[in-house]
Amino acid sequence: MSQAMSVHYDPKLVEEAVFHAQRDRYVASELDERRTRIYEMADRDERERQFHDLYGSWFARLGLGRNIEQALGEQSLIESCVASCYVVCSPQAKQEGAELFVVTGRAAENNQRRTLRILIRPEMLLEPNSSLGFLRHELFHIADMLDPAFAYEPVLPKTDGGPTYDTLITNRYRVLWDVTINGRMVHRGWLPDWAREQQLSEFRQAFPMLEEKLEQDFRRFFEAHQPKHSELAAFALDPRAIAGHLKGPAAAGTHCPLCKFPTHSFESEPENFGADLLAAIGRDFPLWTPAQGLCAQCADLYRASRLSMTAAMTLPGSNQCRSRA
């Protein structure tokens, strides 16, 4: 490891990883013998120190941190730009990952401002292939965040669609970023070629609106050697516009220009609504045109509104009824 960054292991992670390694009978036998001798010590503090040293020595002896140090060493930006890395115990698989913390303030400079935290389950360290692939993927995220060419921004632009649509954009961005990372991992030989199909499936679920051009747009990101945050964010926000697929009507998976909710069900022929219904929509949304489309739910609401107004005009006391009297 580079001298620019120090790596610290959580004692709980070390102890539990060694504990899981005891499924090897040789490890279990030798550990039991050492632990028995430590338990016989009268001094409690000395016992704790001895146990700490015991698990630390076996952690190193078994090479349980080897994949972590290998994955860190493969990312030169992390080694040179991060002061400290803390590897801590994750209670659940869904909480595993890597996080970058940046200290603000005039006194902190360059790598002294950054700390990396890796959360991983102890048993994961005993699965060399799985843990190395996981670590490489997570640390690619961190390397991109540190790369000036990627120009990462921690917050995506807000939309006028509200929190629900913001969540949709965030999920799209996550898929895009994963596509670029796994593409680079395949290129480096860190993932098998069949990983491409799995990533394409996730891309298809996130961007169904691209339809027949989906494979072409997927290659654009999967084969990118130097992706940029701004490009990922723009594509996540409006994939059809960025990809140049706006000639056709609104497509499944895009958001309704009226209610702003994502939908897979658009009104088929909004231009045939009739003058009165188009005028009603125009009063509420002056910039809207039938070419933009609208979801089936909004179309039904305006139809129901028109029907309700027509019905109201037939009630006793309405202006229309009085004129007939």
Number of DSSP helical runs: 14
Residue-averaged pLDDT, rounded? 84
- Helix-strand category: alpha/beta
Q: What does the largest sheet look like?
A: 4 strands, mixed
β-strand percent reads 5-15%
Number of strands: 4
Approximate helicity band: 40-55%
The whole-angstrom Rg is 29 Å
Shape: elongated
> Please, how many domains?
3
Uncertain runs: 320-325
Order of helices and strands: EHHHHHEEEHHHHHHHHH
Q: Provide the spatial order of strands within the biggest beta sheet.
A: 1-2-4-3
Distance between the termini: 94 Å
Description:
With 325 residues, the chain is of the alpha/beta class. The chain folds into three domains: 6-146, no CATH class; 162-243; 249-325. 53% of the residues lie in helices and 7% in strands. Helix 7 packs antiparallel against helix 8 (195-206). The protein is elongated, with a radius of gyration of 29 Å.
